[in-house]
Amino acid sequence: MRTLLGFWFLLGAATVATAEDKPASDGADGAAILRKAQEAAKKVETARYAVEYRGTGWLSARVPATSGEVIVADQSKWNLDKFWCRVKVQRPQSEETVELTAGSDGEVYFLIDPRTKKAHEDLDPAVMGQAGRSIQRVVMGPLTAPEPFKEELTAKKIELREPVKVGDEDCYAVYVAFPDEREMLWYISKKDYLPRRFDRLLKNDKGEPATTELIATNLVVNPKLEGNPFRLALPEGYTKTDEFAN
């Protein structure tokens, strides 16, 4: 059901890092928080948020830094996410920043590239080119999935960590570990129980830890939208093509 989540993370030859145990401060149960988050996310039809995606440690040299604005909606009948984003993507070890607009209606994908004045559109998500992976990483999966946090609630270990602040939101930090050794941290707002941050905990073959971090701030649920942002609106002066972007 989470078709786009596979694009979020650069796994390569990495294995999962062991997270440092930290006790919860209020005695709440991590699984109970995830169940409340599941119910809250099911009520979301659309959402808009500011996003930042980055890698830390050795992943900072592999994962492009991505920031901008995102709109997401319930998955299509094909179980694909509907999304729109306008982002800046900075490749690792480069000062070049690329500004792109992209999206999908859950069937067709598009990318608008102001450098070439072209709008790329196709059924294949690869039409978004090299930036496609960075673009799809900014989609906060539980806000669009029919069964949000379903996988997390079947994990072998769920525990609450020390609460943190994400932007202006006080958040629970819920640690999740799976039998295949994947580890992650979800940061769930104490106010509305919707996710504000997702960390994937990894280590490489040398045992060095690193994370990928997806941070969502200024979250607005069911905002008023102008038209249908999930379909391509060809800007004036641009050429439409089904060629894959560079």
What does this structure look like?
The protein has 246 residues and is mostly beta strands. It contains two helices and twelve strands. A twelve-stranded mixed beta sheet has the order 7-8-9-10-11-1-2-3-4-5-6-12.
Layout of helices and strands, plus pairs?
Layout: H1 30-42, E1 46-55, E2 65-73, E3 82-90, E4 97-105, E5 109-113, E6 118-122, H2 132-137, E7 157-166, E8 169-177, E9 183-189, E10 195-203, E11 209-221, E12 239-241
Q: Would you give the CATH topology?
A: outer membrane lipoprotein receptor (LolB), chain A
- Number of alpha- plus pi-helical segments: 2
Percent in helix = under 10%
Q: Can you tell me the CATH architecture?
A: Clam
Average pLDDT confidence is 90
Q: Sketch the major β-sheet.
A: 12 strands, mixed
Give the C-alpha Rg: 18 Å
Unreliable segments (pLDDT under 50, ≥5 consecutive)? 1-25
Strand order of the largest sheet: 7-8-9-10-11-1-2-3-4-5-6-12
* Total E-strand runs: 12
Task: Sum this structure up briefly.
With 246 residues, the protein is mainly β. 8% of the residues lie in helices and 40% in strands.
For this entry, give a set of tags.
12 strands; 2 helices; twelve-stranded mixed beta sheet; mainly beta; disordered N terminus
